[in-house]
Structures are given as structure tokens and as C-alpha cells.
Amino acid sequence: NQKETIRMTLHDPLVFDLPCWNKVSEPAKNLITGLMLKDANKRTTLKAALNHEWFTRVKAVQAAERQGID
Fold first, then answer.
1. ∠ at Cα 45 (36, 18), nearest 5°?
2. Model's pTM, two decimal places?
């Protein structure tokens, strides 16, 4: 229900325990965790997010694909 979802969002720690998260990389989970921190002073900034390992890996793979490198 909506009240329970709001309570969990505001008070419970973020966990990736559902099966749908099994195929999500640790760098992706790390990025999501940083973006979802409740304390805005500790939350990952946009600049830090764009320089995060997950984005830099994606950019490297895309660059390699554009050059025909697998």
C-alpha cells in the first residue's frame, strides 16, 4: 500500500534483495545507492554520478562499439 511504501522509502535502508536485482552489476547498485541517500549532503551529485565507474564503463563500451571493437 502507499503508506507502507512511503514509510519504507523514508526510513528503511535500500536493499537489493529481490531476484530482479541479481543481474544488476555492483557498480550500478553502488551508483543507485549513492543517488538514493536520504541525507542530501551525502548524496551523490550529478557531476559525481556522471563520473561514476558505471557510466565510464558504459561510455567505454559505446566508444569501442563505434570503432568496431568488441
1. 25
2. 0.74
Span 33-46, pLDDT tens digits: 999 998 999 999 99
CA dist 42 and 6 (Å) reads 21
DSSP state string for 36-63: T-SSTTTSPPHHHHHTSHHHHHHHHHHH
Task: State which H helix or E strand residue 3 sits in.
Answer: helix 2-11
Q: What is the pLDDT of residue 30?
A: 95
| Length, in residues, of the chain | 70
CA distance 7 to 11: 6
